[in-house]
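Q: Could you fold this chain for me?
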Amino acid sequence: MKNASRRQVLQGAIASAIIIGFNPAKQSWVTSASAASGFESLPPLDGILYTDSVTRNAAADDFGHLVRCYPSAVLKPGSVEDVVRIVRFARSHKLKVAARGQAHSTYGQPLIEAGIVIDMSSLDTIHNINAEGAEVDAGVLWSQLLLASLERQLTPPVLTDYIELSVGGTLAVGGIGGRSHRYGVQVDNVLSLQVVTGAGNLETCSRSQNRDLFEAVLAGLGQCGIIVRATVRLIPAAQNARVFLLFYNDLAALTHDQRWLIAQKRFDYVEGQVVADASGGWRYMLEAASFYTPPDKPDNHSLLAGLSYIQGTQQIEDKSYFDFANRLAPTVAFLKESGVWFYPHPWLDLFVPGTAVNGFVGEIVSNLTLADTGQGPVLLYPVATDRLTLPLFRVPDEEVVFLFAILRTAPPDASAIAKMLADNRTFFERNRDSGGYRYPIDAVPFSQADWRQHFYPVWGRLVSAKRRYDPDNLLTPGQGIF
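A: Sure. Below is the predicted structure, expressed as structure tokens.
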């Protein structure tokens, strides 16, 4: 041993710390160094189960940086079979399990205390792309899928504004974007899924096969199964995007024009924001895009005809289709470089009834300050609900609803965070009482009674699916639903 190299010593230390089993009596993992009688052997894995403090600490946080839960282990699977094996092993030892994509939720939704986190980022293979769809692992990022599909002049119908999110992650919640008025949300564009249920079974499901599981998993917040592979629809992609930023002083004029545009399907993409006015206060921005492939070009006059924006303030720019889809990349790079990306994010995301949007948003904006937002964006845009087909994606019962999102960045100050969370709850309740819902990636304190109300009248369907597919209530406890 005196002559052992540093590498040999390190290799020996790693080998002595390999997880080989679980001690049910002590509720602790067993390494080769601590092995003794009375433990259950870990099934053979293609990937690695980590119990070191660095890996566990990284999995104890999400993008919100508001909740911390320390798992006892983190699996980085090497195969779909690893997910099956670890869920079965966890079930036999009554350990909770949560899948983790990019953890872009903001209130601890993918976190777990003393259970097993499955880091899905290691399952990142694009298996097939054709004119109908793409078969991809759940850990594939939408940006990766988009780059690959554009090589065949294809694109997913709906992309979220930030495309560095995982396919499995957004399909567990919905996946909304500026084309949702035409194509629904991302879950509405799924052809089939492979799912590992809480019972440890690998199932294939679609609208025609195991439909109850399909509808329980898409926008099901991880309660009935872990998405390990998805086949998502693709449509022809244009080469370019002409982007229009149109400014308004009046909220009602903005929402009127937004409704009109999605009814006419005049633009391919329609969103909007509440933006700070240089002279103080707020004004409103309609963001729209028309996609095209030369030699065809959009007709600006026809696209803008009849709109009530402030003449002379419009900004018009042509971009490649990918650059438009990836337009947040420079901002994200700046936020990461400055450190602001890693600040707390007590976001608020609400679906507001179209009949209530002007009064609801107008009242909030009249009292909103830049400090309340941390200079984060405030989104406001319409969605036609006839495009939404999945029962667990909950929105108001109206033809048009509006996503209203205050994507707050908080200073690392407990009192400021507490105020933002309290405001979020107040705004949620006010919207709920008008028939509104929340988009549950955000930071709103929620009780089990709130969840029952959220899923009504399909709460019974979710409960039945939970009992069937996750009978021991292992999956995704961070949501606090069951």
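A (continued): DSSP finds 16 helices and 22 strands in the chain.
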